Amino acid sequence: MSEHKHYAGMTRFLHWTVAVMVLATIPIGVIMLQEGLARSTQNLLFILHKNGGVILLLLVVLRILWRLATPAPALPAHLPLWQKRAAKATQISLYALLLIMAISGYIRVRAGGFPIEMLDAFGVPGFVPRSDALAETAKTIHAYARFPLAALIALHIVAGLKHLLAKDGVFQHIWPPMGR
Ligand code: HEM
Fold it and tell me: Among residues 6, 65, 76, 96, which one has the fewest Cβ atoms lying within 10 Å of its Cβ?
């Protein structure tokens, strides 16, 4: 049994902040592309999605660094090996897919020559050349990567709820979102 009962406070805080933001960013991304939306509503959703997505990118990078730098609580010894491996594989794939989503979204917008209001206000350069072909590739990646991301999020939530109901202490590794 590990002496660490929880993930570090910062890791837990970032986990729940990223969770809430991702669960908002996906439906906003889908809704903003629907036909028949009022122009002003669509603009607002795009602004929320693009700028929220950039904040998510920064938080996910920070999260990965924080997670690597701080110790993780061990899973209970009685948990079958396949479950431990599945948990690890799901978590790594979630990090990877969040990075792929956020980076492809960023490239799609920058290569397409569109604004990212928050970054533009601070004069942050685009880093990506203007290119319709690149924008189109990034758009395709962004559109397809959401399916495995949504599937893994669903799996991750079901597994988390299973641990919560089983009261085996695993859910408490990542809960509460703040504090020691
Ligand atoms: C983890 C972060 C992100 C998630 C989970 C996410 C999710 C999504 C989803 C589900 C869609 C709808 C895709 C479709 O129906 O084809 C979408 C579209 C879009 N997203 Fe994101 N997104 C993220 C980050 C970003 C970022 C950082 C930007 C730009 C700065 C961005 C820009 C866009 C744009 C422009 C579209 C419309 C694509 C098109 O032209 O069809 N996204 N996003």
Answer: 65
